[in-house]
Amino acid sequence: LEESPLVHPDELRTAFALAMSHMYKNEVPLYGDLVRIVQSGNHRFVTNAMGSSNDSLDRLTLERHGAIRLGKPVELHTVRRIFALLGMHAVGYYDLSVAGLPMHATCFRPVDTASLAANPFRVFTTLLRPELIRSPEAHDLALRLLKRRNIFSQELLHMLNVGEAVGGWFRVDQAEIFIREALRTFSWAPVAEATQTEYQLLQAEHPILADIASFRTAHINHLTPRTLDIDAAQAAMAAEGMPVKDRIEGPPRRKWPILLRQTSFLALEEKIRFKTRDSNSDQSFPDASNVELVDGSHKARFGEIEERGAAVTPAGRALYDQLLESSMHAVGEQRTSPDAVEAALVDTFRAYPDTWDELREQELVYVKYSFSGKLPSTAQLPSESGSSVMSLIEQGVFETSPITYEDFLPFSAAGIFQSNLNRKPQSLQGGGQSDVEGLEHALGCSVIDPDALYAQAQKQSLESSLLQLKYHLT
Ligand code: OOG
Ligand code: NI
User: Fold this and answer.
1) Residue with CA closest to ligand 1 atom 9
2) Taking a C-beta distance cutoff of 8 angstroms, is the pair 106, 83 a contact?
3) Fewest beta carbons less than 10 Å away: which of 45, 136, 183, 447?
4) Which CATH number fits the domain that encloses residue 82?
5) 279 C-alpha vs ligand 1 centroid, how far in Å?
Protein backbone atom coordinates (compact mmCIF):
# COMPACT_ATOMS: atom_id res chain seq x y z
CA LEU A 1 0.00 0.00 0.00
CA GLU A 2 1.37 3.37 -0.95
CA GLU A 3 1.83 5.81 1.93
CA SER A 4 0.43 9.31 1.54
CA PRO A 5 3.37 11.78 1.20
CA LEU A 6 4.46 13.80 4.22
CA VAL A 7 4.27 17.58 4.39
CA HIS A 8 7.37 19.54 5.37
CA PRO A 9 6.61 22.08 8.16
CA ASP A 10 7.73 24.90 5.82
CA GLU A 11 5.16 23.80 3.25
CA LEU A 12 2.56 23.44 5.96
CA ARG A 13 3.26 27.07 6.96
CA THR A 14 2.82 28.24 3.36
CA ALA A 15 -0.45 26.34 3.06
CA PHE A 16 -1.61 27.77 6.39
CA ALA A 17 -0.72 31.35 5.38
CA LEU A 18 -2.53 30.94 2.05
CA ALA A 19 -5.60 29.52 3.76
CA MET A 20 -5.57 32.36 6.26
CA SER A 21 -5.24 34.92 3.46
CA HIS A 22 -8.17 33.34 1.64
CA MET A 23 -10.27 33.37 4.81
CA TYR A 24 -9.41 36.99 5.60
CA LYS A 25 -10.19 38.19 2.06
CA ASN A 26 -13.61 36.57 2.41
CA GLU A 27 -14.16 38.08 5.84
CA VAL A 28 -12.79 41.55 4.98
CA PRO A 29 -13.21 42.24 1.24
CA LEU A 30 -11.29 45.53 1.54
CA TYR A 31 -8.25 43.44 2.39
CA GLY A 32 -8.53 41.77 -1.04
CA ASP A 33 -8.37 45.26 -2.59
CA LEU A 34 -5.27 46.02 -0.56
CA VAL A 35 -3.50 42.91 -1.83
CA ARG A 36 -4.40 43.87 -5.39
CA ILE A 37 -2.96 47.38 -4.93
CA VAL A 38 0.25 46.03 -3.42
CA GLN A 39 0.59 43.45 -6.16
CA SER A 40 0.27 45.94 -9.00
CA GLY A 41 2.66 48.33 -7.22
CA ASN A 42 5.20 45.53 -6.83
CA HIS A 43 4.73 44.65 -10.48
CA ARG A 44 5.50 48.23 -11.53
CA PHE A 45 8.50 48.36 -9.21
CA VAL A 46 9.99 45.13 -10.49
CA THR A 47 9.35 46.08 -14.12
CA ASN A 48 11.01 49.48 -13.65
CA ALA A 49 13.95 48.08 -11.76
CA MET A 50 14.71 45.10 -13.93
CA GLY A 51 13.16 46.00 -17.25
CA SER A 52 11.13 42.83 -17.26
CA SER A 53 8.16 41.48 -15.46
CA ASN A 54 8.58 38.84 -12.85
CA ASP A 55 6.42 35.77 -12.62
CA SER A 56 6.97 35.26 -8.91
CA LEU A 57 4.95 38.34 -7.97
CA ASP A 58 2.35 36.25 -6.20
CA ARG A 59 5.10 34.84 -4.09
CA LEU A 60 6.64 38.24 -3.51
CA THR A 61 3.35 39.65 -2.30
CA LEU A 62 2.53 36.69 -0.04
CA GLU A 63 1.54 37.71 3.45
CA ARG A 64 4.53 38.36 5.66
CA HIS A 65 2.66 38.58 8.92
CA GLY A 66 -0.62 38.49 10.77
CA ALA A 67 -1.61 39.36 14.31
CA ILE A 68 -3.75 37.81 17.02
CA ARG A 69 -4.62 38.92 20.55
CA LEU A 70 -5.00 36.29 23.25
CA GLY A 71 -6.75 36.58 26.56
CA LYS A 72 -5.30 33.96 28.88
CA PRO A 73 -2.02 32.13 29.45
CA VAL A 74 -3.31 28.68 28.45
CA GLU A 75 -4.33 30.10 25.09
CA LEU A 76 -0.78 31.26 24.47
CA HIS A 77 0.50 27.87 25.52
CA THR A 78 -1.66 26.04 22.99
CA VAL A 79 -1.01 28.62 20.28
CA ARG A 80 2.68 27.98 20.78
CA ARG A 81 2.06 24.29 20.03
CA ILE A 82 0.08 25.14 16.87
CA PHE A 83 2.83 27.40 15.56
CA ALA A 84 5.61 24.97 16.45
CA LEU A 85 4.06 22.48 14.01
CA LEU A 86 4.16 25.25 11.39
CA GLY A 87 7.88 25.77 12.01
CA MET A 88 7.32 29.01 13.95
CA HIS A 89 8.87 29.76 17.33
CA ALA A 90 8.54 32.57 19.85
CA VAL A 91 11.15 35.24 19.10
CA GLY A 92 11.53 38.45 21.08
CA TYR A 93 9.55 40.18 23.81
CA TYR A 94 7.45 43.29 23.18
CA ASP A 95 6.31 45.34 26.13
CA LEU A 96 3.23 47.22 24.96
CA SER A 97 2.62 48.80 28.35
CA VAL A 98 5.06 51.51 27.22
CA ALA A 99 2.26 52.62 24.90
CA GLY A 100 -0.48 52.37 27.53
CA LEU A 101 -1.69 48.96 26.34
CA PRO A 102 -2.38 46.28 28.98
CA MET A 103 -0.60 43.63 26.93
CA HIS A 104 2.73 42.13 26.02
CA ALA A 105 3.70 40.15 22.96
CA THR A 106 6.04 37.86 21.12
CA CYS A 107 6.41 36.95 17.49
CA PHE A 108 6.08 33.38 16.25
CA ARG A 109 8.33 32.96 13.24
CA PRO A 110 10.72 30.63 11.45
CA VAL A 111 14.21 30.92 12.91
CA ASP A 112 16.73 29.40 10.54
CA THR A 113 17.86 30.92 7.27
CA ALA A 114 16.51 28.10 5.11
CA SER A 115 13.01 28.21 6.67
CA LEU A 116 12.93 31.99 6.43
CA ALA A 117 13.84 31.73 2.77
CA ALA A 118 11.13 29.12 2.20
CA ASN A 119 8.45 31.36 3.74
CA PRO A 120 8.99 34.01 6.43
CA PHE A 121 5.32 34.17 7.55
CA ARG A 122 5.05 35.22 11.19
CA VAL A 123 2.32 36.02 13.68
CA PHE A 124 2.58 38.90 16.15
CA THR A 125 0.86 37.48 19.20
CA THR A 126 -0.23 39.58 22.14
CA LEU A 127 -1.37 38.38 25.52
CA LEU A 128 -3.59 40.37 27.84
CA ARG A 129 -2.06 41.37 31.17
CA PRO A 130 -5.13 41.62 33.45
CA GLU A 131 -3.01 43.00 36.29
CA LEU A 132 -2.62 46.22 34.28
CA ILE A 133 -6.36 46.84 33.99
CA ARG A 134 -7.35 49.69 36.25
CA SER A 135 -11.08 49.18 36.72
CA PRO A 136 -11.80 46.24 39.07
CA GLU A 137 -15.17 45.65 37.35
CA ALA A 138 -13.61 45.46 33.90
CA HIS A 139 -10.81 43.27 35.25
CA ASP A 140 -13.22 40.78 36.82
CA LEU A 141 -15.60 40.75 33.89
CA ALA A 142 -12.80 40.13 31.38
CA LEU A 143 -11.46 37.24 33.43
CA ARG A 144 -14.95 35.77 33.85
CA LEU A 145 -15.62 35.88 30.11
CA LEU A 146 -12.20 34.49 29.24
CA LYS A 147 -12.46 31.70 31.76
CA ARG A 148 -15.61 30.43 30.09
CA ARG A 149 -14.25 30.25 26.58
CA ASN A 150 -12.31 27.59 24.75
CA ILE A 151 -10.93 28.81 21.43
CA PHE A 152 -9.61 25.41 20.33
CA SER A 153 -11.69 22.58 18.87
CA GLN A 154 -11.35 19.04 20.20
CA GLU A 155 -10.19 17.99 16.75
CA LEU A 156 -7.44 20.60 16.78
CA LEU A 157 -6.19 19.44 20.18
CA HIS A 158 -6.15 15.90 18.85
CA MET A 159 -4.18 16.96 15.76
CA LEU A 160 -1.64 18.73 17.97
CA ASN A 161 -0.91 15.43 19.69
CA VAL A 162 -0.72 13.63 16.36
CA GLY A 163 1.59 16.27 14.88
CA GLU A 164 3.89 16.36 17.88
CA ALA A 165 4.23 12.59 17.80
CA VAL A 166 5.54 12.75 14.22
CA GLY A 167 7.78 15.77 14.73
CA GLY A 168 5.56 18.07 12.67
CA TRP A 169 5.49 15.91 9.54
CA PHE A 170 1.79 15.41 8.84
CA ARG A 171 0.40 13.31 6.04
CA VAL A 172 -1.47 15.42 3.47
CA ASP A 173 -4.89 14.36 4.76
CA GLN A 174 -3.87 15.17 8.33
CA ALA A 175 -2.40 18.51 7.25
CA GLU A 176 -5.74 19.49 5.78
CA ILE A 177 -7.59 18.74 9.00
CA PHE A 178 -4.96 20.55 11.05
CA ILE A 179 -5.13 23.70 8.93
CA ARG A 180 -8.92 23.69 8.85
CA GLU A 181 -9.17 23.35 12.63
CA ALA A 182 -6.38 25.85 13.35
CA LEU A 183 -8.13 28.40 11.14
CA ARG A 184 -11.32 28.03 13.17
CA THR A 185 -9.44 29.40 16.17
CA PHE A 186 -8.46 32.52 14.22
CA SER A 187 -11.72 33.07 12.37
CA TRP A 188 -14.23 35.85 12.94
CA ALA A 189 -17.17 35.26 15.26
CA PRO A 190 -19.87 37.79 14.32
CA VAL A 191 -21.88 37.01 17.43
CA ALA A 192 -20.19 38.24 20.58
CA GLU A 193 -20.24 36.10 23.70
CA ALA A 194 -20.47 39.21 25.84
CA THR A 195 -23.71 41.08 26.23
CA GLN A 196 -23.82 44.61 24.92
CA THR A 197 -23.60 45.99 28.45
CA GLU A 198 -20.58 43.86 29.23
CA TYR A 199 -18.95 44.85 25.96
CA GLN A 200 -19.48 48.52 26.74
CA LEU A 201 -18.01 48.14 30.19
CA LEU A 202 -14.87 46.55 28.74
CA GLN A 203 -14.68 49.08 25.96
CA ALA A 204 -14.88 51.98 28.37
CA GLU A 205 -11.80 50.58 30.10
CA HIS A 206 -9.97 49.87 26.84
CA PRO A 207 -11.26 49.09 23.32
CA ILE A 208 -8.61 46.37 22.94
CA LEU A 209 -9.90 44.73 26.10
CA ALA A 210 -13.37 44.48 24.52
CA ASP A 211 -11.77 43.00 21.40
CA ILE A 212 -9.86 40.39 23.39
CA ALA A 213 -12.51 39.26 25.86
CA SER A 214 -15.88 39.53 24.10
CA PHE A 215 -15.60 36.79 21.49
CA ARG A 216 -15.48 33.03 21.18
CA THR A 217 -12.45 33.02 18.87
CA ALA A 218 -9.08 34.77 18.75
CA HIS A 219 -9.82 36.35 15.37
CA ILE A 220 -6.94 37.41 13.23
CA ASN A 221 -7.04 41.22 13.33
CA HIS A 222 -4.91 41.94 10.26
CA LEU A 223 -2.70 40.39 7.62
CA THR A 224 0.23 42.15 6.03
CA PRO A 225 1.62 41.58 2.56
CA ARG A 226 5.04 42.86 1.56
CA THR A 227 5.41 45.96 -0.60
CA LEU A 228 8.58 46.92 -2.43
CA ASP A 229 7.71 50.63 -2.24
CA ILE A 230 5.61 51.57 0.74
CA ASP A 231 5.40 55.28 -0.09
CA ALA A 232 3.91 54.50 -3.50
CA ALA A 233 1.58 51.88 -1.98
CA GLN A 234 0.36 54.32 0.67
CA ALA A 235 -0.41 56.88 -2.06
CA ALA A 236 -2.21 54.26 -4.16
CA MET A 237 -4.33 53.23 -1.14
CA ALA A 238 -5.36 56.84 -0.56
CA ALA A 239 -6.06 57.31 -4.29
CA GLU A 240 -8.54 54.43 -4.14
CA GLY A 241 -10.30 56.12 -1.27
CA MET A 242 -9.22 53.71 1.46
CA PRO A 243 -9.28 55.11 5.00
CA VAL A 244 -5.51 55.04 5.30
CA LYS A 245 -3.41 55.62 8.40
CA ASP A 246 -2.01 59.15 8.47
CA ARG A 247 1.67 58.21 8.37
CA ILE A 248 4.09 55.35 7.79
CA GLU A 249 5.56 53.91 10.99
CA GLY A 250 9.26 53.24 11.32
CA PRO A 251 12.33 54.95 9.87
CA PRO A 252 11.85 57.53 7.11
CA ARG A 253 12.54 56.59 3.47
CA ARG A 254 16.23 55.77 2.88
CA LYS A 255 18.58 54.60 0.15
CA TRP A 256 19.49 51.64 2.37
CA PRO A 257 16.30 50.60 4.15
CA ILE A 258 16.67 49.41 7.73
CA LEU A 259 14.27 47.57 10.01
CA LEU A 260 10.64 47.87 9.10
CA ARG A 261 8.22 50.44 7.67
CA GLN A 262 4.48 49.84 7.99
CA THR A 263 1.17 51.45 7.24
CA SER A 264 -2.44 50.27 7.12
CA PHE A 265 -6.03 50.98 6.28
CA LEU A 266 -7.87 51.76 9.47
CA ALA A 267 -10.01 49.25 11.31
CA LEU A 268 -13.51 48.91 9.91
CA GLU A 269 -16.69 49.38 11.91
CA GLU A 270 -18.34 45.98 11.50
CA LYS A 271 -21.81 44.77 12.35
CA ILE A 272 -21.89 42.21 15.12
CA ARG A 273 -24.59 40.88 17.41
CA PHE A 274 -24.61 40.55 21.15
CA LYS A 275 -26.17 37.84 23.25
CA THR A 276 -28.67 38.73 25.90
CA ARG A 277 -27.50 36.78 28.90
CA ASP A 278 -26.84 37.43 32.52
CA SER A 279 -23.12 37.87 32.94
CA ASN A 280 -23.17 36.46 36.44
CA SER A 281 -24.61 33.12 35.46
CA ASP A 282 -21.84 30.58 35.48
CA GLN A 283 -23.40 28.35 32.87
CA SER A 284 -21.32 28.00 29.73
CA PHE A 285 -22.39 29.82 26.60
CA PRO A 286 -25.97 29.14 25.68
CA ASP A 287 -26.65 28.01 22.15
CA ALA A 288 -27.07 31.05 19.91
CA SER A 289 -30.41 29.72 18.71
CA ASN A 290 -31.86 29.91 22.19
CA VAL A 291 -31.00 33.46 23.07
CA GLU A 292 -32.20 36.73 21.74
CA LEU A 293 -29.58 38.71 19.82
CA VAL A 294 -29.21 42.47 19.59
CA ASP A 295 -27.44 44.40 16.86
CA GLY A 296 -24.23 46.28 17.51
CA SER A 297 -20.87 46.99 15.95
CA HIS A 298 -17.20 46.35 16.59
CA LYS A 299 -14.02 47.92 15.26
CA ALA A 300 -10.88 45.81 15.24
CA ARG A 301 -9.94 44.42 11.86
CA PHE A 302 -7.72 46.17 9.37
CA GLY A 303 -5.21 45.57 6.58
CA GLU A 304 -1.57 46.47 6.75
CA ILE A 305 1.45 46.56 4.44
CA GLU A 306 5.13 46.41 5.24
CA GLU A 307 8.51 47.08 3.67
CA ARG A 308 11.46 45.37 5.29
CA GLY A 309 15.07 46.51 5.39
CA ALA A 310 18.29 45.44 7.04
CA ALA A 311 18.49 43.91 10.51
CA VAL A 312 20.52 46.24 12.69
CA THR A 313 23.04 45.30 15.38
CA PRO A 314 22.49 46.43 18.99
CA ALA A 315 24.58 49.52 18.12
CA GLY A 316 22.40 50.16 15.07
CA ARG A 317 19.28 49.70 17.16
CA ALA A 318 20.53 52.04 19.87
CA LEU A 319 21.10 54.71 17.23
CA TYR A 320 17.62 54.10 15.79
CA ASP A 321 15.97 54.38 19.22
CA GLN A 322 17.99 57.46 20.07
CA LEU A 323 17.09 59.25 16.82
CA LEU A 324 13.44 58.24 17.16
CA GLU A 325 13.39 59.72 20.62
CA SER A 326 15.08 62.97 19.60
CA SER A 327 12.71 63.42 16.69
CA MET A 328 9.73 62.95 19.03
CA HIS A 329 11.34 65.49 21.33
CA ALA A 330 11.80 67.86 18.40
CA VAL A 331 8.13 67.71 17.34
CA GLY A 332 6.99 68.30 20.93
CA GLU A 333 3.46 69.70 20.93
CA GLN A 334 3.03 69.03 17.22
CA ARG A 335 3.04 65.30 17.80
CA THR A 336 -0.48 65.00 16.43
CA SER A 337 0.48 66.46 13.07
CA PRO A 338 1.68 63.69 10.75
CA ASP A 339 3.55 66.18 8.56
CA ALA A 340 5.41 67.64 11.52
CA VAL A 341 6.37 64.16 12.73
CA GLU A 342 7.53 63.16 9.26
CA ALA A 343 9.61 66.33 8.85
CA ALA A 344 11.25 65.84 12.23
CA LEU A 345 12.05 62.21 11.44
CA VAL A 346 13.58 63.03 8.07
CA ASP A 347 15.65 65.76 9.65
CA THR A 348 16.84 63.74 12.65
CA PHE A 349 17.57 60.59 10.66
CA ARG A 350 20.15 62.39 8.54
CA ALA A 351 22.45 61.33 11.36
CA TYR A 352 21.87 57.65 10.49
CA PRO A 353 24.53 56.61 7.92
CA ASP A 354 22.94 55.72 4.60
CA THR A 355 25.62 54.11 2.46
CA TRP A 356 26.28 50.40 2.52
CA ASP A 357 29.98 50.84 3.33
CA GLU A 358 29.28 53.10 6.31
CA LEU A 359 26.56 50.83 7.67
CA ARG A 360 28.84 47.83 7.38
CA GLU A 361 32.08 49.42 8.54
CA GLN A 362 30.45 51.05 11.56
CA GLU A 363 28.85 47.67 12.35
CA LEU A 364 25.36 49.15 12.43
CA VAL A 365 23.86 46.28 10.42
CA TYR A 366 24.26 42.51 10.26
CA VAL A 367 26.04 41.32 7.15
CA LYS A 368 25.61 38.32 4.93
CA TYR A 369 28.91 37.27 3.31
CA SER A 370 29.28 35.32 0.11
CA PHE A 371 32.28 34.13 -1.86
CA SER A 372 32.43 35.80 -5.29
CA GLY A 373 34.66 33.19 -6.91
CA LYS A 374 37.51 35.69 -7.28
CA LEU A 375 40.79 34.68 -5.62
CA PRO A 376 42.79 36.99 -3.31
CA SER A 377 46.09 38.49 -4.51
CA THR A 378 48.14 37.03 -1.67
CA ALA A 379 48.38 33.31 -1.07
CA GLN A 380 47.96 33.92 2.66
CA LEU A 381 45.29 31.68 4.18
CA PRO A 382 42.34 33.87 5.16
CA SER A 383 41.01 33.96 8.70
CA GLU A 384 37.94 35.21 10.53
CA SER A 385 39.89 38.18 11.87
CA GLY A 386 38.42 41.59 11.11
CA SER A 387 41.37 42.82 9.06
CA SER A 388 41.53 39.69 6.96
CA VAL A 389 37.80 39.84 6.19
CA MET A 390 38.03 43.56 5.44
CA SER A 391 40.82 42.96 2.96
CA LEU A 392 38.87 40.15 1.27
CA ILE A 393 35.93 42.51 0.84
CA GLU A 394 38.16 45.23 -0.58
CA GLN A 395 39.65 42.81 -3.09
CA GLY A 396 36.19 41.70 -4.19
CA VAL A 397 36.74 38.15 -2.97
CA PHE A 398 33.83 38.41 -0.55
CA GLU A 399 30.60 40.14 -1.37
CA THR A 400 28.34 41.51 1.33
CA SER A 401 24.62 42.18 1.54
CA PRO A 402 22.14 43.04 4.30
CA ILE A 403 20.35 40.40 6.36
CA THR A 404 16.63 41.15 6.32
CA TYR A 405 14.98 42.26 9.57
CA GLU A 406 12.43 39.58 10.49
CA ASP A 407 10.99 41.07 13.68
CA PHE A 408 8.83 43.98 14.81
CA LEU A 409 9.24 47.39 16.44
CA PRO A 410 7.36 48.07 19.67
CA PHE A 411 6.80 51.77 18.95
CA SER A 412 5.60 51.07 15.43
CA ALA A 413 3.27 48.38 16.78
CA ALA A 414 1.97 50.88 19.33
CA GLY A 415 1.44 53.41 16.52
CA ILE A 416 -0.57 50.85 14.55
CA PHE A 417 -2.69 50.01 17.62
CA GLN A 418 -3.13 53.68 18.47
CA SER A 419 -4.26 54.65 14.95
CA ASN A 420 -7.42 52.61 15.51
CA LEU A 421 -8.29 54.10 18.89
CA ASN A 422 -9.99 57.43 19.16
CA ARG A 423 -8.26 58.35 22.35
CA LYS A 424 -4.95 59.16 23.96
CA PRO A 425 -2.99 56.41 25.70
CA GLN A 426 -4.01 56.13 29.33
CA SER A 427 -2.01 55.11 32.33
CA LEU A 428 -2.10 51.51 33.47
CA GLN A 429 -2.67 49.92 36.85
CA GLY A 430 0.61 50.00 38.75
CA GLY A 431 2.23 52.11 36.00
CA GLY A 432 3.12 49.03 33.97
CA GLN A 433 6.48 47.32 33.66
CA SER A 434 7.67 44.62 31.35
CA ASP A 435 7.13 41.03 32.47
CA VAL A 436 9.17 38.67 30.30
CA GLU A 437 8.93 35.97 32.95
CA GLY A 438 5.13 36.17 32.90
CA LEU A 439 5.03 35.73 29.12
CA GLU A 440 7.56 32.89 29.19
CA HIS A 441 5.66 31.18 31.97
CA ALA A 442 2.49 31.27 29.87
CA LEU A 443 4.37 30.04 26.79
CA GLY A 444 6.06 27.27 28.70
CA CYS A 445 9.41 28.11 27.13
CA SER A 446 11.75 31.06 26.89
CA VAL A 447 11.61 33.50 24.01
CA ILE A 448 14.50 33.40 21.57
CA ASP A 449 16.72 36.49 21.42
CA PRO A 450 16.41 37.91 17.89
CA ASP A 451 19.94 39.32 18.02
CA ALA A 452 21.36 35.87 18.62
CA LEU A 453 19.62 34.69 15.43
CA TYR A 454 20.99 37.52 13.28
CA ALA A 455 24.48 37.15 14.73
CA GLN A 456 24.34 33.44 14.01
CA ALA A 457 23.19 34.00 10.41
CA GLN A 458 26.06 36.44 9.90
CA LYS A 459 28.61 34.07 11.40
CA GLN A 460 27.37 31.13 9.35
CA SER A 461 27.63 33.07 6.11
CA LEU A 462 31.17 34.15 6.98
CA GLU A 463 32.28 30.66 7.92
CA SER A 464 30.86 29.07 4.81
CA SER A 465 32.44 31.78 2.61
CA LEU A 466 35.81 31.19 4.25
CA LEU A 467 35.43 27.49 3.76
CA GLN A 468 34.64 27.88 0.07
CA LEU A 469 37.60 30.17 -0.37
CA LYS A 470 39.92 27.72 1.37
CA TYR A 471 38.83 24.96 -1.01
CA HIS A 472 39.66 27.22 -3.91
CA LEU A 473 43.10 27.98 -2.49
CA THR A 474 44.16 24.43 -1.80
C1 OOG B 1 -0.76 44.00 16.63
C2 OOG B 1 -0.14 45.27 16.18
C3 OOG B 1 1.34 45.07 15.92
C4 OOG B 1 2.74 45.25 13.84
O5 OOG B 1 2.82 45.05 12.63
O6 OOG B 1 3.53 45.99 14.44
C7 OOG B 1 1.65 44.61 14.56
C8 OOG B 1 -2.23 44.12 16.86
O9 OOG B 1 -2.87 45.07 16.39
O10 OOG B 1 -2.76 43.21 17.51
O11 OOG B 1 1.07 43.76 13.98
NI1 NI C 1 1.14 44.18 11.88
Assistant:
1) 417
2) no
3) 136
4) 3.10.180.80
5) 30
